[in-house]
Amino acid sequence: MTKIVIEVADIGKQFKRPVALQANTLRDAIAYKWHNWLKKLTNRPATHTQEDSFWALREINFQVREGEVVGLIGRNGAGKSTLLKILSRISMPTEGQIRMHGRVGSLLEVGTGFHPELTGKENVYLNGAILGLTRNEINKKFDAILDFSGVEEFIDTPVKHYSSGMQARLGFAVAAHLEPEILIVDEVLAVGDAAFQKKCLGKMRDAAGEGRTVLYVSHNLASLNTFCTRGIVLDHGKVSFDGDIDKAVTHYLKGIFPLEKGTDGFSQRSIDGFKIITVKIRDSNNHDTPVMRHGEESALHFHFENKLSSAPHGLVIGILVTNEIGIDVINVNSIMTGATLAPLPSAGEIVFQLGRIGLLPGNYYITFTVNSSDGVVCQIYSGLSITVADGDFYGSGKGCLTTRAIYMPECSWSIRNEEICAS
């Protein structure tokens, strides 16, 4: 078993924030005025605020082993960045203990660890010295850092003149190439372009493959799901889940979408006179079913009520299906499929018929739209979800044996000898 490189025990971080004093009674107002008048006589500043404390983190406990790639997940304000600052020794915890076994390279907010008056080159050597590297060791890595960052033209310019993207590129290049045993990366990569983000993820994969430990914060759930093996979910400053990354993402999304109630309780916006009443899932025998089954045909039936005085022209009906990590897996409309749509009756249903379901088992979120040449007639924009249950897509009796994909294709396998291939 690999050794433990990060130990976090009962970590808590408390902050104080000023709160304006309010006089709720005449007595309070007179007391505040008198108090501040006395302070002026003694040349002390008047008091208009008092301090209110809050815990950004509380009772945080976990261990990370060498070579693990851990994603920190949580809403804005959950405490992710505060925790990373503590692990990077930028901030001290109010309570608890941390033990870090190895050199730590971190990329948090843009510019963290850089001296704004120093040039990019000087900051590279400064960061290397902080990590305990000799000048010769930094010299050997300098060209690789420069090439990766793409700021060669400005390397002798003070960092204060760099854009946020340039600072992020140089900061990541320094953190990754100076080969710390523990690499900590915050959402700061979002300021880079797509090509640079791809390079960064590749570099982090290389670091993990070399046995180094990576802690990664991102709101890109697809990136977390493909890159990390473990997820820690923070909620209101506490750990609400710690385990496999797939389950961590699912746990996080369930907290974000508490209103997702299958085909009940959806939210819609529509023009006066038109409304979706119910949504039903039906199987290949036209029977109502609570779930779709992997490998079987299903349909979504949108029952509507139409009291419009005139029929909408140029109807286009579309559906968007998104998986649990925010990836669009189906995006199709009636124009793309060449469908001929009849006029909307006063009451009826719109049917979205699916062939054999290739989607992997799991939960999916639906956006459904009815458009006309005059604009949106109706849109279900939240609260509608479906569940795809496991099934036997290939008729092999094996079911679905993977969770690291999005869609199962119609396919077959064969082995041919060389003579057949030549013909």
Automatic annotation (TrEMBL):
Keywords: ATP-binding, Cell membrane, Membrane, Nucleotide-binding, Transport. GO terms for cellular component: membrane. GO terms for molecular function: ABC-type transporter activity; ATP binding; ATP hydrolysis activity. This is Lipopolysaccharide transport system ATP-binding protein. Belongs to the ABC transporter superfamily. It holds the Pfam family Wzt_C. It comes from Novimethylophilus kurashikiensis. The keyword Membrane applies. SMART domains: AAA. Residues 41-261 form the ABC transporter domain. It comes from the Bacteria. InterPro entries: AAA+_ATPase (IPR003593), ABC_transporter-like_ATP-bd (IPR003439), ABC_transporter-like_CS (IPR017871), ABC_transpr_TagH-like (IPR015860), Bact_Polysacc_Export_ATP-bd (IPR050683), P-loop_NTPase (IPR027417), Wzt_C (IPR029439).
